[in-house]
Amino acid sequence: MNETIVALLGFAGTLIGSLCGVLTANKLTNYRIEQLEKKVEKHNNVIDRVYELERQNAVEEEEIKVANHRIDDLERKVE
Questions:
Q1: Per residue in 55-75, is it b (16+ CB within 10 Å) or e — as a string?
Q2: SS3 call for 1
Q3: Using only C-alpha atoms, what is the Rg of the chain?
């Protein structure tokens, strides 16, 4: 009878210990995932900003080409 009680107590201890370990690991995993999500969000914001800068740069380059073309046209008229 005592052996059964000892076995049940050992099983209960093992079960409780395992559950605590799983819960702790789960909390740590969730924390690390949250930190990675924050890093990914920062990265995505940088990518969006770079894309916007590249778009603005392309527009400005086109405006410069148009202005240079107009200057060339005006210089030809003056000659």
A1: eeeeeeeeeeeeeeeeeeeee
A2: coil
A3: 34
